[in-house]
Every structure is written in structure tokens, then in C-alpha cells.
Design brief:
single chain; 302 residues; mainly alpha; 11 helices; 81% helix; 0% strand; transmembrane; membrane; zinc ion binding; ZIP
Amino acid sequence: MDYLLQVKIGALVGLLLLTLLFGFIPARLKWFRNSGGTESHRTVLSLISCFAGGVFLAACLLDIIPDYLSDINAELEAQGLEISFPLPEFIMAAGFFTVLILERIVLTCRQVDGVHEERAPLIQASGHGHGHGQATSHDLESSGHHIHVDFQAHSSFRSFMLFLSLSLHSVFEGLAIGLQNTESKVLEICIAILVHKSIIVFSLSMKLVQSAVPSFWVAAYIGVFAMMSPLGIAIGIGVVQAQLATGAFIQAILEGLAAGTFVYITFLEILPHELNSPEKQLLKVLFILLGFSIMAALTFLG
């Protein structure tokens, strides 16, 4: 086994272990799951969520979209394709509308189910029941979260799409490591991905926990997400060893669909959920800016 292959395998193992470590911190600590704690506890969780929103915003604008545009434009040049139509942006829009349509279908089905449930007799008389049909207008007005925001922003569907878009991007990041032909370049890219992915997976885990995803599925999501970059590295190693064509154009298209998905999740789910709440608006914006700035600094240094 040559030294370059050993370095790539070391990067594979390191990415896997570090991602699992940072992903399971919010998933395993009860503090992050305690939504009924004190006011200060809820404020801290909200600010952490805003920080995560800034991280995802930076990942979207400074990492995922630029990487995709660079890859697909390079591939279009390599194929000798000259078109006036903005194909890269159109592919991103296709990813955006795919998620939008799928989510509208899911929410429509849930609303239809809700209508059927309201027609059924309400057995529970307690005010702590989970049926939405029992809520009075006073209950809705005094709730800490707006009903519309809570129903959509915390949907398991959006959490899954966030996980899916990040996972696809992680595969492409790992592929970039696996396809390198020098040890220094492997280490350089690996260190950059390690730092930025640690923050990303922590933020992803936070979002899954806040979306009331069951513990088993949070663990499954984090476990699968942790394996995505190593999977990309393994694919890259296999391609290099076998000297096969990479199918770069198909890869670029998949990156574009993932980027469009990420745009939707970032701007229609993560940021609106916190900013629609009237409490501590300026402080929330500050923490969003802090998360964005840290990721921007890491991108600049990397």
C-alpha cells in the first residue's frame, strides 16, 4: 500500500469519527431536548439555533453553490458546450422546485388527515392532549410559537430534505479528497472539510432534535451522514485505482439539485423559523451573523 493511499484511508477514518462525535453531542445530551425548561434555557437554545442558521447560510452561499457552479462550468467547457441559456442556475431551480412540490404534497395530505381527525369524536378532554382540534382560540393566542411556523418549520420532511442535501454534498466533498494525486493536497482538503463539517453536523443534529425527530432516527441520520464523506473518498480511491472516467457531468447535475434543495431549506425553513418569533430580534440576527462569519473565515483561510 503506497503512502498516498494510506493518507486517504486516514482521512476517511478521521472524517467518520469526528463527524460522529460532533453529531451525537446535541443528539445525546438531554439539555438540548428540554423544550419546556426555563426562559433562559429556551433563549440559549434559540440563539444556538440562530448560530446554526448562520452556518447553513454560509455553507449555502460560500461553499455549496460556488463549488457546484465551478464544477458544472468546468464540465461544460470540457464538453465544448456553449449555450446562452443559464443551465447551471436552471438545474438549481429544478432542485428547489422539486422540494417545494414534494413538501406541498406532504403538507396537503397531512391537512386532509387533520380534517378527518377533527370529524372523529375527541376522547381526551385534557388540555395537554396532542389533537389540534382541542385547541381554543385562547390556547392558540397564548402559545409560545405561531401555529403556522411550528407546523411547517419543524416538519420531519424538511429535516429529512436538509439531511439529504447535506449528505449529497458530503459525498462530493469526499470524492474531491479521493481523486487527489498528492499527499499535501489530500491533507489540505481534509483539514478544511474536518473543521467545517464538524460545525455543520453539530448544526444538523441541533435541527433534527428541535424538529422532534425520534432519537433512533436522529442517530440513524447522523450515522448515515457521517459515512457520506468517507463513501465519497472510497469512490474516489476506486476511480483512481481503476483509472475510470468519473462521469463528472452527472456529478455536477446532482450537485446542482442538492444546491437547489439547500437553498430552499436555508431560506424557507431554517432562517424564517427563528426570525418569525418577535423575541430578541437583534440578538438573533447577531448570532446568525456570528455563525456566518465563522464559516466565512474558515472558507477564506481554507
